[in-house]
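Hey,
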Amino acid sequence: MSQPPSTANSRTVFGYPRSAVVADLAGVAAVGVLLVAVHLLLPASTNDRLAFDHAAFAPVASLASDGLAALALGRTQLDNLLTAAYVHAGPAHLLSNLGGYASLAAVTYLVCLHAGRRAWFRRTVPVLLVVLPVTVNLTSYALLAARFPDTSPISRGFSGVVAGFGGFLVVAVAVHLRRTYARETVSLVGLFATALLVGELRWIYASRVGLLEGGTVAVGLALSVSGILARGYEATYADAHYRRVGQDLLYVGLVLALLVWLVYGLFPADPLADGAFTNVFAHGAGFLEGGAFAALTYVGVR
């Protein structure tokens, strides 16, 4: 005999077994526990060895001059492209990254569940945890070497991965909206989000938003809202239609607010404030590459 719908639904979350969702969230939390354990249990000297030293990363040139010893050094720094993401400069640095990771990972997971794409989240997260730190550090190294050749910072911290989850969230929202709305509507929302975040960056670094940027954001907002209103759910009753559309508008607005908060935290006006260097190049790379990896892992998802 089948169970009543209310009983069956109480055991699922967006159609997935509650036990599976709890296990997924436990896996997300385990990453945070790992970050705390690494910071608390490893001695400072080990923490320093796991960071990525830009000055020491020259395996090809070093090998030519110093032979096998330099090869070992180069190999160590190649490993540090990954390990640097899991060590932090201090408690404040760690807590900041933990807060960003927890909020973005949880929201992205819920969006994936709502879109019926739990397997996509499960296949993307390992890429963001293992591959993304390497590509972010390589990109950051190349950009800093080209733009500021006289600098040789030491990179550490999970913020590049946090930014990557921000990029993943953008792609996840687009996938979710595409299930209900036309491609044109999703494009309008994407363009509005891009204009909003670019405008925020201009406000952060130029302390002003020009007429063009402000106008683009306003027009993008108007087009996005009208697109959602015009291409919403087909429903027998108009009230149900607009109730669901209103929920989607609120949902998109909350996600964009989270992304605005993310950008504000990852791209400070003074990257050298308080005597520490905030690597905005790594953050930008993390956001873009995280979104790209999410799009790649989505290929073939049903």
